[in-house]
């Protein structure tokens, strides 16, 4: 059944007069979320108190929700677990992959990767000592640097700044050909385009749920471990929730089986409730439909901006198959220009040094929104409305 995008739009709270093109950073609130979170608070937390861990199923939600996510990213059941932050899950996946390739010391990534992923890799390499190091190359040069020195290829499938998309299947195959493992960050893929981890042969992956999935600020991340590694992979963060018997309170760590060993701390139950509300919408969505509509809307936006705003230069790949669900433009005064259009009700964001970034999110954005956004952006650019002092004062969060 084709996705009903009128219905999906009706499932979100969208402030009157706002065109929200920043769902690639933080999705809007589903209308069902407050009631779903409130139900977890009362009667569950209010009346069940600590018995809610058993009676309300709180303790197993990282795995039951993990299975719901697995079905959306082409992962095998029982191989995705939810909890903690994306940085933590990247660290765990990277550490586990490195341990499976003893004698190799190179973590290969690209210069377009999200900085937090690189920071995690740098910190882990420092902990492991001189034998391990992070090497970053230009995104288009990754395949050429896959050699037998590489232990792990760590990439974000879709570049957070430009939307450039890596070929997950091809690069995974190339990595395996030289004996390396892969860790894929799906932060800008999950909910934006079809993902087939099993079909691509991915070894490890992680992603967040607060962008295209719309689970709310601070919503938990997830991690995937392929069946081939699930029983032998080790976790560098041996939290009590990843213990085989957490309530035995043993002094020594015994890892749980398969992906459950990558649980760390106590599940964030209220955030998981918000995630469940968001996933209820996705149960009625076909990601292929989302992708097709995303491309159509993105092409419409690019054509409009390039016709009306010659000052802006496309930063995203022109071929829609080579980009995710965002469109980015270079402009030297991009921060000020973005503040000017935000003041007029079009919400995008800015990424240093000069990128204006717009998320194309079909669950709640349509052609009329795209056309109206182009009109406002054209007015700001053609009349230099961005050239005001208040728009050039950078806020803490950009």
TrEMBL record:
GO terms for cellular component: cytoplasm. Pathway: Amino-acid degradation; L-kynurenine degradation; L-alanine and anthranilate from L-kynurenine: step 1/1; Cofactor biosynthesis; NAD(+) biosynthesis; quinolinate from L-kynurenine: step 2/3. It comes from the Bacteria. Pfam families: KYNU_C (PF22580). InterPro entries: Kynureninase, PyrdxlP-dep_Trfase, PyrdxlP-dep_Trfase_major, PyrdxlP-dep_Trfase_small. GO terms for biological process: anthranilate metabolic process; L-kynurenine catabolic process; L-tryptophan catabolic process to kynurenine; NAD+ biosynthetic process; quinolinate biosynthetic process. Keywords: Hydrolase, Pyridine nucleotide biosynthesis, Pyridoxal phosphate. Pyridoxal 5'-phosphate binds at residues 86-87, 114-117, 156, 185, 188, 210, 240, 266. GO terms for molecular function: kynureninase activity; pyridoxal phosphate binding. Its EC number is 3.7.1.3. It catalyses: 3-hydroxy-L-kynurenine + H2O = 3-hydroxyanthranilate + L-alanine + H(+); L-kynurenine + H2O = anthranilate + L-alanine + H(+). SUPFAM superfamilies: PLP-dependent transferases. Its cofactor is pyridoxal 5'-phosphate. The modification N6-(pyridoxal phosphate)lysine is found at residue 211. Catalyzes the cleavage of L-kynurenine (L-Kyn) and L-3-hydroxykynurenine (L-3OHKyn) into anthranilic acid (AA) and 3-hydroxyanthranilic acid (3-OHAA), respectively. Homodimer. Belongs to the kynureninase family. HAMAP family: Kynureninase (MF_01970). This is Kynureninase. The lineage of its organism: Bacteria, Pseudomonadati, Pseudomonadota, Alphaproteobacteria, Rhodobacterales.
């Amino acid at each position: 059944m084709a996705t009903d995008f009128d219905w999906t739009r009706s499932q979100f709270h969208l402030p009157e007069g706002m065109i929200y093109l920043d769902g690639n950073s933080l999705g809007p609130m589903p209308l069902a979320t407050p009631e779903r979170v409130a139900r977890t608070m009362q009667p569950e937390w209010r009346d069940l108190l600590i018995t809610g861990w058993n009676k309300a199923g709180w303790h197993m939600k990282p795995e039951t929700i993990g299975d719901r996510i697995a079905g959306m990213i082409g992962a095998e059941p029982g191989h995705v677990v939810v909890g903690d932050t994306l940085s933590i899950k990247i660290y765990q996946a990277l550490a586990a992959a490195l341990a499976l390739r003893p004698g190799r010391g190179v973590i290969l990534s690209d210069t377009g990767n999200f900085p937090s992923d690189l920071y995690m890799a740098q910190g882990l390499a420092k902990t492991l000592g001189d034998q391990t190091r992070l090497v970053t190359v230009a995104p288009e040069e990754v395949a050429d640097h896959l050699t037998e020195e590489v232990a792990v290829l760590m990439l974000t499938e879709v570049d957070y700044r430009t939307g450039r998309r890596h070929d997950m299947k091809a690069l995974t195959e190339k990595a395996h050909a030289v004996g390396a493992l892969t860790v894929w960050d799906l932060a800008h893929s999950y909910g934006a385009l079809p993902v087939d981890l099993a079909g691509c042969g991915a070894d490890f992956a992680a992603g967040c749920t607060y962008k295209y999935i719309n689970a709310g600020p601070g919503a938990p991340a997830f991690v995937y471990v392929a069946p081939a590694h699930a029983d032998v992979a080790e976790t560098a963060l041996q939290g009590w929730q990843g213990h085989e018997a957490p309530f035995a309170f043993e002094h020594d760590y015994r890892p749980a089986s398969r992906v459950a060993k990558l649980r760390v701390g106590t599940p964030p139950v209220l955030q998981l409730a918000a995630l469940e509300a968001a996933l209820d919408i996705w149960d009625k969505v076909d990601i292929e439909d989302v992708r097709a509509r995303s491309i159509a809307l993105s092409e419409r936006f690019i054509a409009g901006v390039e016709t009306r705003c010659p000052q802006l230069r496309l930063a995203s790949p022109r071929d829609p198959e080579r980009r995710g669900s965002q469109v980015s433009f270079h402009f030297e005064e991009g921060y000020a220009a973005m503040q000017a259009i935000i003041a007029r009700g079009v919400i995008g964001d800015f990424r240093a040094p000069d990128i204006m970034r717009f998320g194309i999110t079909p669950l709640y954005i349509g052609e009329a929104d795209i056309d109206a956004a182009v009109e406002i952006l054209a007015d700001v650019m053609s009349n230099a409305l961005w050239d005001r002092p208040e728009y050039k004062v950078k806020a803490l969060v950009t």
